[in-house]
Write a structure and sequence with these properties.
The protein contains eleven helices and no strands. The protein is mainly α and about 220 residues long.
Length: about 220
């Protein structure tokens, strides 16, 4: 009788331990669900970003660009690169559009070979029309077309080739701003390895550990 009563007491303790473990596991799952998000996610959720809010919320409908060709001053750094070093800006944008399939060095070299190496200095004297003497608009328009197809954008305010023919630096800056939206919309994940278990598995594991400890005693 005493042995049976002791067994029942141990079974009751194990049952209570399983209940406590299950409740603790549910609390941990709920805590992970409402865990404080990283700074980039908080910035996105609160509506704040590295870009002006007026630019971030300029959506006019499905398939519209986030910014226009004339909005190059919204990113002064990209505007300077587009005018003085367009080969660098184009290669960086092309790598983002192709998700790394087109290497930076290859895009940079191709841009220079099709006329960017002499089109950029001439543009400082003749303006954007200097690129008419090169094959840069033909090559850059193919990358702009890939960006439009990737994000479902329309040919606004003109087609791809005309945009690079009329104002190649402005088109480069617009494509750079549009491609950078992918980086701003990323959600950072955990910074350390994690092991996730279901609540039932956690409860059984804790109950087994407690039972083992009691048997050892």
């Amino acid at each position: 009788m005493a042995e049976e009563g002791g067994r029942r007491g141990r079974d009751a303790e194990v049952a209570r331990a399983e209940q406590r473990a299950s409740a603790r596991a549910e609390q941990q799952v709920a805590a992970r669900a409402i865990r404080v998000t990283p700074s980039r996610t908080r910035r996105r959720a609160s509506g704040r970003s590295r870009q002006p809010q007026s630019w971030r919320h300029r959506w006019r409908g499905k398939g519209e660009w986030n910014s226009g060709l004339k909005d190059f001053l919204r990113d002064p750094r990209a505007a300077v690169l587009g005018c003085c070093l367009p080969c660098y800006l184009f290669a960086q944008t092309a790598r983002k559009i192709t998700d790394g399939r087109l290497q930076f060095s290859r895009a940079f070299a191709t841009y220079c070979l099709v006329g960017g190496c002499w089109g950029a200095p001439l543009s400082l004297i003749l303006g954007p029309l200097a690129y008419w003497l090169t094959c840069v608009p033909c090559y850059a328009s193919t990358m702009r077309r890939q960006l439009r197809h990737k994000k479902g954008l329309r040919e606004r305010p003109m087609d791809d080739f005309a945009a690079h023919c009329c104002c190649h630096p402005c088109a480069l800056c617009q494509e750079y701003r549009e491609s950078r939206e992918f980086d701003l919309e990323l959600v950072a994940g955990p910074t350390h390895p994690t092991v996730d278990r279901l609540p039932e598995e956690t409860a059984r594991h804790l109950a087994h550990l407690q039972q083992t400890q009691q048997m050892e005693r």
